Amino acid sequence: MIKKKQQKLPLYKQICELLHREISAGHWLPGDRLPIESELANSLGVAIGTLRKSLAQLEAQGFLERRQGSGTYVKRAPTGKAVYQFFHLELPQGGGIPSAVILAIDLVSDSYVAKQLALTDTQQLLWRIKRERYLNGNKVAVEEIWIESRHCEQLLIDDIHESLYVHYRENFDFWIARVEDSIFCEQAPTWVQQALTDTTATSQQEDMHRSYSVVERKGWSNKEILEEFSRTWFMGEKCRYIARWS
């Protein structure tokens, strides 16, 4: 399938999501002052104007407070759901702005996936979405996401939002409210190895015979229905899986 242009989150919203995640994770606590704008913009690799737009949105939502002549402070921790609420991959040094590119969408059956989704018909056709995942513009993982075909008769790359969770909410009348992750290592499928393999011949030989970390995820909707199953493969030197509780 030809790769097409998909709906992207504006950069300022990506920065909002990143700061939302960082505050939720406790990197900055209520009362803490954020780094000065020039330092924060530089660390995030964005223009100050873009950063200020993000800070203004978070301030309007009540998470930040700007004090004239003093700086920007965390007012309270977010309680709402961020777009990347359940995205647990970070760069080895921490953080990273998430983004995604869809590689292909097809309608296929898979008995293993059907069982994970608790379907009685293991030959039922399912939508499979293959994606590359990026942090700060660097490819760190690839994944496949499966949902039932009953949600739509046609699913095109052009029509899907970069965040599938946004797409579910806006088009399928549900959102993912909770997830369950299982993490293990395996020799990944060929298409995954090819997508994550370096370009040099030596690296290709090494990567094609290595084990990859994989996260298998089940996602339940706000209606407590098991709606999504996914697999995400990544290499530890490119990113790490982080889960935080409070």
| Share of helical residues | 25-40%
Radius of gyration of CA atoms, rounded to a whole number? 19 Å
Oligomeric grouping of the chains: single chain
**Biggest sheet: strands side by side, in what order?**
4-5-6-9-8-7
Distance between the termini: 43 Å
Q: Give the overall silhouette.
A: globular
The stretches of 5 or more residues where confidence is low (pLDDT under 50) are: none
Strand content is 25-35%
Tell me how many strands there are: 10
SSE-based structural type: alpha+beta
Average pLDDT, all residues: 85
The ordered string of helix (H) and strand (E) elements is: HHHEEEEHEEHEHHEEE
Q: Quick one: biggest sheet?
A: 6 strands, antiparallel
Tally of helical segments: 7
Key words describing this protein structure:
7 helices, six-stranded antiparallel beta sheet, alpha+beta, globular, two-stranded antiparallel sheet, 246 residues
